Amino acid sequence: MSLWDYKILDLIVKEGNLRKAAESMHLTPAAVSHSLAKLEKEFGLPLFVRGRRSMELTQYGKMLLPHIRTILDADMRLHSELQRIKGDMNGLVRIGVINSVCCAWLPAILQRLHESLPDVSINIYQGGYDELENGLLNGSLELAFVSLPTRKNLAAIPLLHDRLLCITPSSFIPVNVSYITLEEIKHFELIIPGPGSDFDAIAFMEANGLDTKSVHSIQEDSSIIALVESGLGVSIMPELVLEKNSRGINVYPIESAPYRLIGIATLTNTHPSSPVSAIVKLIMDYVREEYPTEMPYFRK
Known about the structure:
Order of helices and strands: HHHEEHEHHEHEEHEHEHEHEEH
GO cellular component, one term: cytosol
Radius of gyration: 22 Å
Largest sheet: 7 strands, mixed
Helix content: 40-55%
GO molecular function: DNA binding; DNA-binding transcription factor activity
Keywords: DNA-binding, Transcription, Transcription regulation
Number of strands: 11
Structural class: alpha/beta
CATH class of the largest domain: Alpha Beta
Organism: Blautia hydrogenotrophica (strain DSM 10507 / JCM 14656 / S5a33) (Ruminococcus hydrogenotrophicus)
Shape: globular
Protein name: HTH lysR-type domain-containing protein
């Protein structure tokens, strides 16, 4: 039995069904179901009556829930006391960043960190999603920017919806002028970010019926933009990548308005230190100030 399983059970009770509980924790329904099944096996008792759209506690579940919540409250008080005792803001925090965040956000965030937390040492590691998620799991990172939902079921806080846009040579104008269709994209050679880049381009292409065989896979964003500018094809890139890199090309929203959800993640089974908690809050405040309303989504 673990506190994590208790937290999942408590959230299922609060949300009323397994799917909503999974969405709240940015986990898959299968992961939440597995945690609940493990808990019921360890207790040797059925805890929920599963309906088509909702879940209700069994009599055993109702008897055990107050004790489980007492344990969760005690754990919260324990960590609060530990933070009070160890509350000095010092130490080392290792942060993993994807390329677009490194270019668009990191300079301003680091400046704020140095001003607000002068005694905290910050190490930055740039990598792709898989590298950063693995870094959290193996303990080489305390924080990482990720795309939600994560592949490793990490605890993550959503930060920003980032549109996926199509970049074309400057000579191309789509039929609808203000946006490009998937059918129009199919007529071009595709130049896509390679493995380990900011988003899984192959998965996006397969999900939208684009040919994944006749594509050029390039690692560097600047190289992709240079090839598109030269008229050698088109590409699909996150908007954050293009904020400061759109000269010499045309940038169009894509029909159906696809996007990725950027978040900041930590390990699910650890309680963040005071410096880590302070950095997460600073990052959230920065993004909220930069994007006071949701980025405008294109709708066809």
